[in-house]
Design goal:
mainly alpha; about 80 residues
């Protein structure tokens, strides 16, 4: 079972549980609504900002900053 199918199963089961409760609106706002919003946001941001490209850019920036600091320190000595 993947993480996505587990999340959808959790969303479905919490929706069913909320429908059988005395105050379904309260349990929908606490349980599946934030989960559904978070899942939709994760899918949207994954399409807009590819994680591997962001991590690669961060790694290159980090390597460049380490190299420039090393040169500056050698010049100060």
């Amino acid at each position: 079972m993947s993480a996505f199918s587990f999340t959808l199963t959790l969303l479905l089961s919490s929706t069913i549980a909320a429908a059988n409760a005395d105050q379904p609106l309260f349990w929908l706002l606490i349980g599946p609504a934030p989960l559904a919003i978070g899942l939709a946001a994760a899918v949207f941001f994954r399409q807009r900002f590819p994680l591997h490209r962001c991590l690669l850019a961060l790694r290159k920036w980090n390597d460049q900053s380490e190299n420039s600091e090393g040169i500056t320190r050698l010049g100060e000595i």
